[in-house]
Specification:
252 residues, alpha/beta, 6-stranded mixed beta sheet, 4-stranded antiparallel beta sheet, 6 helices, 29% strand, binds ribulose-5-phosphate
Length: 252
């Protein structure tokens, strides 16, 4: 758990330790300050974005935000937004989005992201690719020197048909980076994880940097059977990081 020591009140010498979830909430609330009445909003997915969606719902209920239209990036966010009474639409009806708020799994120094460990990368990339502004919200554990550098998964959404063949091609593509490709599973029986779009996810693990990200992106997308990957290159316009020293806002 991340720890951020803050005074419990301006005059108090007593400090409280904030959890990683508290940090996520702080970043999320900061991002919601960018929201104005009348906006079409991309609603992200994950434990950080969930706080932003909850806050937007709260402000709508309090009458502080009016005429908001939300475009959810997953069925789970759709359900959360419906439960909060946030009016919803989709990209077909609203192809231009004013602002999206979403979390990330990794953020590099150039504000490139890895997303999709929560499984929603395809819809997230469609929605966030249609945004005028994309505010990414993370706690500082998500900062990396290069994408793939956390040693955690780089997700690729693939069609189910001959997924092993596609996983093998992905692994071969990054042989020099020591890539291992694994099918994502879920549940006690280890069934394949199925995305909102009915596809599978192959998670790529790297031992070394994958080099030029654009080259890597094109090479992945060039494999038949791949639907989308979790590298979000040059898409975030602002990244809000909550960490031990407080909030940092990085913008392009
Ligand atoms: C879901 C995502 C999430 O934004 C990402 O996994 C970060 O999640 P969390 O906020 O729970 O750490 O890309 O597909």
């Amino acid at each position: 758990e991340a720890g951020l020591l803050i005074p419990s009140s301006p005059s108090s010498s007593v400090s409280v330790i904030l959890s990683q979830d508290d940090l996520k909430k702080i970043a999320a609330y900061k991002a919601v300050e960018y929201v104005e009445s009348g906006m079409v909003l991309g609603l992200g997915t994950g434990s950080t974005a969930k706080h932003a969606v909850a806050r937007i719902g709260e402000l709508i209920r309090q009458g502080k935000l009016k005429n908001i239209i939300g475009i959810p990036t997953s069925t789970i966010t759709h359900e959360q937004a419906v439960s909060l009474g946030i009016p919803l639409s989709d990209l077909d009806s609203h192809p231009v989005i004013d602002l999206a708020i979403d979390g990330a799994d990794e953020v590099d120094p150039y504000l490139n992201l890895v997303k999709g460990r929560g499984g929603s990368l395809l819809r997230e990339k469609m929605v966030e690719g249609a945004c005028k502004k994309f505010v990414c919200i993370v706690d500082e554990s998500k900062l990396v020197n290069y994408l793939g550098g956390s040693g955690l998964a780089m997700p690729v959404e693939v069609i189910r048909f001959c997924w092993k063949f596609t996983a093998g091609r992905l692994q071969n593509l990054f042989e020099e980076s020591g890539c291992v490709a694994k099918l994502r599973t879920s549940g006690e029986k280890g069934e394949p994880y199925v995305t909102d779009n009915g596809n599978y996810i192959v998670d790529l693990y790297f031992k070394k940097s994958i080099g030029d990200l654009r080259v890597a992106s094109d090479a992945i997308l060039n494999i038949a059977g791949v639907v989308e990957h979790g590298m979000f290159l040059d898409m975030a316009t602002t990244v809000i990081v909550a960490g031990e020293l407080g909030l940092t806002v990085k913008s392009k």
